[in-house]
Write a structure and sequence with these properties.
This protein is mainly α and about 190 residues long. The protein is built from nine helices and no strands. Belongs to the sigma-70 factor family. ECF subfamily.
């Protein structure tokens, strides 16, 4: 186990995805106390804080095969914590009329400003990738040729043997879909 202690979070999570329970225990030990502290600050109840953090780790293990890290693992863990705290606060609201809705602000969970910005960036990046992948095949191909390969509409039209107007129409369509998705995501990020 000692040789695994020196591994990065991302290396350990790769091992977790391979069903390595020792790597999972190391991650648990690295994050448990810090997550409890953050949860306790927001929830003001030790039992609730422990439950929320336990749910984070249960879900991390349960969904490990479905998580494709595109950044640091800690941002995914903190995002999971935020969602678990929000879920518990929603339950409290339903159970008690004393909790005010303004107390549900996810932004009040104490994280470093840089951590928050990076988490939001990763969420936005994942959503954009998801939206682009959901575009119709021709639209997606044209958009990627334009944005990822830096090709002009004329170059794309020549390479795909389609009209310049078709390329422009497909690009406008892709940009409109992306713009709408980003606007929806911004609303969710500011909740």
């Amino acid at each position: 186990m000692a040789h695994k202690d020196g591994k990065s979070d991302e290396e350990l999570f790769f091992l977790v995805q391979q069903e390595d329970s020792i790597a999972f225990s190391i991650l648990y030990d690295r994050y448990w106390q810090h997550l409890i502290k953050k949860s306790l600050h927001k929830l003001q109840d030790q039992s609730d804080a422990e439950e929320v953090v336990q749910n984070v780790f249960v879900n991390l293990w349960k969904w490990k095969a479905n998580i494709a890290l595109k950044g640091h693992l800690k941002y995914y863990i903190y995002t999971m914590l935020r969602h678990e705290i929000f879920r518990l606060l929603e339950i409290r609201v339903r159970e008690s009329s004393h909790l005010q809705l303004d107390e549900l602000s996810l932004n009040s969970i104490p994280l470093d400003h840089a951590d928050m910005q990076h988490m939001e960036y990763l969420e936005l990046q994942d959503q954009i990738t998801h939206v682009i992948d959901g575009l119709p095949e021709k639209c997606r191909l044209i958009f990627k040729m334009s944005r990822e390969e830096g090709m002009t509409a004329k170059q794309i039209a020549e390479q795909l043997d389609i009209s310049h107007r078709t390329v422009e129409t497909q690009l406008r369509k892709a940009i409109r879909v992306l713009k709408n998705a980003i606007q929806r995501l911004q609303v969710l990020l500011f909740l």
